[in-house]
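re the bet — no i am not wrong, look at it urself. input seq straight from the record:
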Amino acid sequence: MVSTQRSWPHDRIPVEPRGCDTFGLPDDRRLDVAEQVPLVDYLVLGDEPHLQANECTACGARFFDRRNACASCGKTEFTKAAIATEGVLRSFTIVAFAAPGIPVPFVAGIIDCDGTQVRANVVDVEPDPEHVTLGMKLKLTTFPIGEDSAGTEAIGFGFAPLEAN
């Protein structure tokens, strides 16, 4: 069977063009606000950006993707749970090879955010074993990763060291 779905090039981020938000104000009070959209659905932007998981109401297992049923207990009800913005690096690898257009090297890690495991890049640190260590304390950070022709920014996230190395 041949798939009819098209995939985006690896070095581009799909951003839907949008106009300026007027918040329903009359024409003379309209605001021109540059929009930002999160790269992933579970990144919540605003004054205090954070990650948000789907938490099983029966067993408390957390998932960042949409689920029809809990992979841990099989129940089907979920609630939204804010994830701690600080964590500890539990595992990492220094990525030396990637798809065309992806700068290397970079650090991919698993961060324990108060009991929730988050897979993310470790940013704002030299990608070598002298600067990245297991147990280092990290904090969620967001950054622009692209912009469309209407000025809408796509926002990504990573975890940066809490302390200078």
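see?? Residues 1-31 have pLDDT under 50 and may be disordered. told u. also The first strand starts at residue 36 and ends at 38. so pay up
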